[in-house]
Design brief:
alpha/beta; Rossmann fold; 6-stranded mixed beta sheet; 6 helices
Length: about 210
Amino acid sequence: MTTIHLVRHGEVDNPEGILYGRLPNFGLTDRGHEMARRVGEHFAAASLTPDELVASPLLRAQQTIDPLRQRLDLPVFTDDRVIEAANSFEGQKLNGRRLAMPRNLVRLYNPLTPSWGEPYRQIVLRMQAAMASLRAKLVKHGPEAEGVIVSHQLPIWMTRLAGESRSLVHDPRKRECDLASITSFTFESSTLVSVSYESICADLQPGQAVAGA
């Protein structure tokens, strides 16, 4: 049995409210750092502590995993496959008026793919490949090994939908993936046997949705 925990990064310092996507230098707010500390405390206090740590290359993910790295004294493997989804609206401050502009409206022709960004199926495949690589590394740690991957909302949510055999087409407003939340996948050999979700920072969530998370 192996368990892989997909952790969403903490709150990002984004005062302009733009869709930051894969843009560099978007780090955590003070509250985001508190979320990261809580992630570290949560896993360090668990009956089974993680054996392997992985993170997206983006600053917010690296900062979120750092307290856990320090607590467990483990190296962090940076995996590009768990990065934020590509999005053609990256760098914009989106609202209804901006979306209605011709240069943006033309990108919205197919929400099922979606036409404005990285295809949902492609996100799932790269996330599953990263998890398979981590499972292979966990084997050397013996039975009931665990790993943590700090990633981003859409990749985590896509992976959960696929794991639960649900449609990848969804309403973004209904994603169950809080900042610094934990979505856990337990495998028996290579077979997924359970998916669970926990919001360990429910009291620290911002009052409104975070753009570009």
